[in-house]
Amino acid sequence: MPIRALLIDDDTRLAELLKGYLAPHEVVLSHAPDGARGLAAADSGVDIVVLDVMMPGLDGLDVLRRLRAKSAVPVIMLTARGDEADRVVGLELGADDYLAKPVYPRELLARIRAVLRRTAPRAVDRRLVVGDLEVDPEGRTAKVGGANVQLTALEFDLLLALAERAGRVVPRDALWEAAGRADTVVNERTVDVHVSHLRTKLGDDAKDPKRLKTIRGSGYVLVKEPG
Q1: End position of a domain, from candidates 93, 119, 145
Q2: pLDDT tens-digit profile of 28-84?
Q3: Taking the model in full, what pTM does it have?
Q4: Phi and psi dihedrals of 19, rounded to 5?
Q5: Residue 77's beta-bridge partner residues?
Q6: Phi, psi (rounded to 5 degrees) for 185
Q7: Which of 13, 87, 96, 219 has a Cα-to-Cα distance from 161 of 20 to 30 A?
């Protein structure tokens, strides 16, 4: 089945170039020239969004915030080369990957496939249970006390990595790698922000967490029996 990709970018020439390259590789690319129309197009159902940061009106970061408020669809951000600030903010807001402009179609295709591999269901034969937390790697779902927890793809990957190592301290850099993001370079603050978002969604106390603890100077631990 073809991959349904949505490009949200005001560069129509880039859109035509990418459409022509991706089509023979079973990626059907639709195009929205601005943020508002991009949000509407995303509602129609797509497998992945490729989102430019620099757009007039509603910029890419605003679009990402609105997408993440209602959807966990994978998102690849397009940023100006060397603009680390946009890259870091995008990842903190829930982007799954980033790509610097100018965009090379072959590299974008590789990134699309890599992100979709990471976010696809994993074939395992059991769920992970840590206290009242249940993580289903195959269905990519998580429950706390029987209630579903809405997570982004990155948040789920971080949670799965922690659940697989429950009771053990996972260093920050090792956690990022265990979540399948070794190809994305980020600083410690970015990891901290994502863990903080995950902790909130799990219903943990931000000031005195019992479930997902930060071990100062080391990393994080998912407690087997939260107190």
Answers
A1: 119
A2: 999 999 999 999 999 888 999 999 998 888 989 999 999 998 888 999 999 876 667
A3: 0.60
A4: -55, -45
A5: 51, 98
A6: -90, 125
A7: 87
Segments of the chain with pLDDT less than 70: 81-83, 121-126, 182-186, 227
User: Domain of 53?
Assistant: 3-119
- Give pLDDT, residue 89: 81
β-pair type (48-52, 3-8): parallel
Buried b (16+ CB within 10 A) or exposed e, 40-63: ebbeeebbbbbbbbbbeebbbbbb
Same domain, residue pair 97 and 203 = no
Instruction: Compute CA 66 distance to the chain's CA centroid, rounded to the nearest angstrom.
Output: 14
What six digits make up the tokens of 84?
Answer: 């680390």
The Cα 77–Cα 71 span in angstroms is: 16
Which CATH number goes with the domain that contains 33? 3.40.50.2300
Beta bridge partners of residue 29, listed in sequence order:
5
172 is written with which tokens?
């920050």
- Tracing tokens 């978002």 back to the chain, one arrives at 197
Cβ contact 6:28 at 8 Å: no
Structure tokens at 157: 């990957």
Q: Are 96 and 76 in contact (CB under 8 A)?
A: yes
The verdict on residue 30 lying in a domain is yes
Q: What is the pLDDT of residue 46?
A: 92
Q: Is residue 227 part of a domain?
A: no
What is the model's pLDDT at position 198?
93
Q: Last residue of a domain, which of 119, 136, 162? A: 119
